[in-house]
Amino acid sequence: MPRSRHKAQSNVILAAIFLAVFTIAIIPLVIFMIQAGQTPPSENPLVLILQGARIIRGEIRGAYDENTMGLLLVNNAGEDVGVDRVVIQLLCGNNTQIVSVSGANIASGKIPSGGSTSLNISQYIPAVCTDPTIKTIQVVSQTGAVIPVRVVSLKELLSQPTGPGNQTTTPIATPITVFPSPVGPGDDLTNITWVFFRGDFDVIVDPDRSMTGGWQQGDGYRWVWKLDRVINNQAIKIDGQYIRNIWIGYDPRNTSRYNILITADNITFSTPYYSTSSHVRVKIIGFTPFTSYIMRLWTKYIYKPPESIANLYYTFNFKVDIFLNGRAEKVEIYVRARETTAGRNATGYEPYILYMNTKPNQGATGLLFTDIDRLWGYKTTVNEYYNVTDYTRYGALRDYSLSPLVLVYTGYEVKNDELSGVILALNYQFIDNERSDQDGVTSNEPIMILGLVELVEENGEYYYYIYTYRTYNFWELTRYKDTYPPASQMQSSIVFFPLPDSSSGNRTFYVFLLIQDPYWYNRSQPTMDDLDFALYIESLVLIPVRR
Amino acid sequence: MSSFPIHAFSGEATLTTTILLIGVALVIGIGILSYVAATLGNYRSQLDLVNTFRYEAGNIYVNTILYDNSTSTLWLLFKRLDGSIGNYYVIIESGGVYLNCSRIRVYNPLNDTNGVLCDDQEECVTASTVYSGGLKGVYALYSSGVTNFESYARAQGYPLASSIQACRIPSVCILTGKRGVCSDNTIVRVDLSGLTLPVRIHVAVEYSGVLYVVGTYAPF
């Protein structure tokens, strides 16, 4: 047998022995190390900490009446609270003593959740203690919570201050939208009172003495807008007529339709045929165009209402020809005429108000007021008229308010026992036809007034009394627009009205908005104070501030 | 002349060397095994200790009932949240002075006849002294390990002293002889006359005859 084979065999045997020994030594070591690495997870003390937190959540209120020595404990903790003992720190003469009353003296040893328990502690005060004074009272619950009891006398309770420190308020309540005012599909937008009524407004307006114009020399009759023609639910067509101003907005009942107000020196409708040579105001409600555009103004196609109420007036050399073809729910044509009926020299606000939105918002409407009919002027020229010497129809188109339009919003009662004040946020646009702006007037008059009124009964009659208000005068309003080239922007105004404290009596107030045109013209300077304007109320929001 | 085969000698030498090497390997292996076993065992026992202390730190609950200014008396409440009956061990320090156990008394409601707390000697049991000596004789749980109380006090900024007393406060259930789960609160009176504030109550746990501070309660 070759020796080299013997040697190879012995090496294999030795290697096997070594491996066996190595395995016996190492494997238990490895197993031990793996096991040792898996130390048991440490006891999480979190549960105990939480339990500790839970037992100190004591929401117990207590009051001690010194006269009867009765202790009243009220449990608002949301669970029954077991009383271990009541610890009372007592002053006996000059000595302090700590008296402990076991919870066993309380019925069932606990205060039920949401309930209360009372304890007369006079029997636990030592007999030697004469004239004791309670310094502190602590309730020790069975769970270990120590709850201090407020020691109050009856006198103290009655004179508890209610200062600002005691207030936990959520100051601002849900905002109330006054404008845009709700409208439904069947509402008649030409009846302004109906729409206000629907929007919870109390309208204070004199329908026969609201707006008027100049008078006719000779007979002294006033020039007013008179309803000359109403077209209901028909196709209408105006083909190339010169107009002066136009306002276009979305119909709030159906935003695929449009509400339009046109002023012109005269007009002729092709369909249905109508023609007048008088100054004219045309209100078109619910207009659906037959064309892909709403209308054409000379060469300009109007596809959607402009955001600015100044965009489409005084355009194109101060008059423009209009091409309009479509169907209208209702058309009202007002012509300028003398009011010859005895005792009447004015109209309501109907010819001047158009319900519309500058944005396609459905279901609620903004309010456009405008008495601009013709042209702007400087402080040295007559507004609305070319000719300063046209004395026969003196100031005929220069409308002004004999009495304002007042809207009292009765949809929300502003009560001083609940509210400390109201915030009113008003969004509006304004443009006027006085190109000299504030230099064109001799006085700064209010055009819009926002405020609070109070309904007061006197001798069986109810009256609105103005409690507080903020005016929007001409000088302020005219700052943010340009008469020509016409430009106006949406303005925002936020007003805070504090309410009187209810300690002087509970009072109820209502938000009101007043609109008027205070300017006719100045009799001694006929080219001054002769402005007309357009005002669009986009939104008015009432934000109640709680006490 | 007889001759030994050279290869036969060579085989024996290899075997001897291998056996020697195995022996050395065994010795080293057993050595490492013993070392690792000892280290891990030590580590695990310390971990057990720390876990126990952590449990007790959360379990023992201390609350202030009131401090009576006129008599400089502090009334404390002790409770074990798990309801076990046992002693409480405390080291109390007030204004830099470590209190003697004679200042600490435990209220026993069984001996209360008139409702006035601790107005006679029997009603309130004086705490017994379980340790008296230097700060290093007591240990403390600190930074997830165990250190002596002196280092702990130094690290936390607590005052040092040459001698302190650790006191045993028996649970009220021990005093009243109640069995089962103990839900009663132990009321303790601490006499702080002549001392200034603040007060610190170091709560300790006894483990194999040695006291370990597991938490410090500072009411004011």
Instruction: Give the count of helical stretches of chain A.
Output: 5
Major interchain interface with per-chain residue totals? A-B, 48 and 54 residues
Computed structural class of chain A:
mainly beta
Question: How much strand of chain B?
Answer: 35-45%
Q: What would the average pLDDT of chain B be, to the nearest integer?
A: 85
Detail the poorly predicted runs of chain A: 41-58, 160-167
What's the gyration radius of chain A in Å?
A: 42 Å
Cα-to-Cα separation, first versus last residue of chain A: 115 Å
Mean pLDDT of chain A: 83
The major β-sheet of chain A equals: 8 strands, mixed
Q: What portion of residues of chain A belong to β-strands?
A: 35-45%
Q: What oligomeric state do these chains adopt?
A: heterodimer
Helicity range of chain A? 10-25%
Number of domains of chain A: 2
Model description:
- The complex is a heterodimer of chains A (547) and B (220).
- Chain A folds into two domains: 57-158, Immunoglobulin-like (Sandwich), CATH 2.60.40; 192-546, no CATH class.
- Helix content of chain A is 11%, strand content 44%.
- Chain A is built from five helices and 33 strands.
- In chain A, strands 1, 2, 3, 4, 5, 6, 7 and 8 form an eight-stranded mixed beta sheet that branches.
- In chain A, a hairpin with a 2-residue loop joins β3 (81-92) and β4 (95-102).
- The termini of chain A are far apart.
- Mean pLDDT of chain A is 83; it is low at 41-58 and 160-167.
- Chain B contains three helices and 13 strands; from the N terminus they run αβββββββββαβαβββ.
- The mean pLDDT of chain B is 85.
- Chain B has helices at 6-59, 149-156, 172-176, and strands at 60-68, 73-80, 87-94, 97-98, 104-107, 124-126, 128-133, 139-142, 145-148, 164-170, 186-191, 199-207, 210-217.
- Chain B starts with 5 loop residues before the first helix and ends with a strand.
- The radius of gyration of chain B is 29 Å and the shape is elongated.
- Chain B has 220 residues and is α+β, with helices and mostly antiparallel strands.
- Chain B has one domain.
- Chains A and B meet through α1, α2, β3, β4 and β7 of A and α1, β1 and β2 of B.
